[in-house]
Design a protein that fits this description.
alpha+beta, GIY-YIG endonuclease, three-stranded antiparallel beta sheet, 7 helices, 6 strands, elongated
Length: 226
């Protein structure tokens, strides 16, 4: 039996527009619900970051159009959130509208066209630009929550370094790991802060900077011969 699409049995189906009242930037999406006052503002990546940074109170949502079904809603969103729309500077949408129904070839063509729009809008490395904007919007609590979430996820799958042999992290995972590690291990946060290597040409060890160097020892580290 085919799996029913999300929201098909909801009472209301509409196209909405959520606007950042401070910047004027906006996001257009579709939503199905039984409660018109459910507090939903949207699920776009840039929109979520905007809400996290500026707060829900600085965003407003308006219903642009009601549709009779989820299927009609998806078709209409594809018409409204077009390549021309996401090319606008104020638009926070990162892909054209429509929920499913594409062949593999259509999806690939759509992704290529969307990439062209995003490159023109944010530059060739638009992914880094968007990720940086997201990192800059996070505060210390957000970083800690992300770090804890990653740790919990790794524990849930019994992760250990051995399981990664011959495998690589996805691009999104690498970006997330970098974001949570930003600022860690620098200065006094580094376990090696304030230490230096000394050697007697037989062995090497670390001492705290400022400590007296024992007789027969010198600054540096014995280099192992290959």
């Amino acid at each position: 039996m085919a799996k029913k699409q999300y929201g098909t049995r909801k009472k209301y189906h509409f196209i909405y527009k959520t606007t950042n009242l401070l910047s004027g930037r906006y996001y257009i999406g579709m939503h199905s619900t039984d409660d018109l006052n459910d507090g939903y503002l949207g699920s776009g990546i840039l929109l979520r970051r905007s809400i996290n940074k500026y707060g829900k109170e600085n965003h407003s949502i308006e219903i642009l159009e009601f549709l009779n079904s989820r299927e009609e809603l998806a078709v209409r969103e594809k018409e409204v959130v077009s390549l021309q729309e996401i090319a606008k500077k104020e638009c926070m949408n990162l892909k054209v509208g429509g929920d499913g129904g594409f062949t593999k070839e259509q999806a690939q063509r759509g992704r290529r066209k969307t990439n062209e729009i995003l490159v023109g809008k944010y530059g060739k490395e638009y992914g880094k630009f968007i990720a940086k904007r997201w990192r800059d919007s996070l505060n210390e609590d957000d970083h800690e929550k992300l770090s804890n979430k990653i740790s919990e996820g790794l524990k849930a799958v019994n992760f250990n370094h051995a399981t990664m042999l011959g495998r690589t992290h996805s691009t999104s995972t690498i970006k997330l790991m970098k974001a949570t590690k930003k600022g860690h291990g620098k200065g006094k946060e580094n376990s090696q802060y304030g230490t230096c290597w000394i050697t007697n040409d037989v062995e090497s060890k670390k001492i705290h900077k400022g400590d007296a160097i024992p007789e027969g020892w010198r600054l540096g580290r014995k280099v192992k011969k290959k």
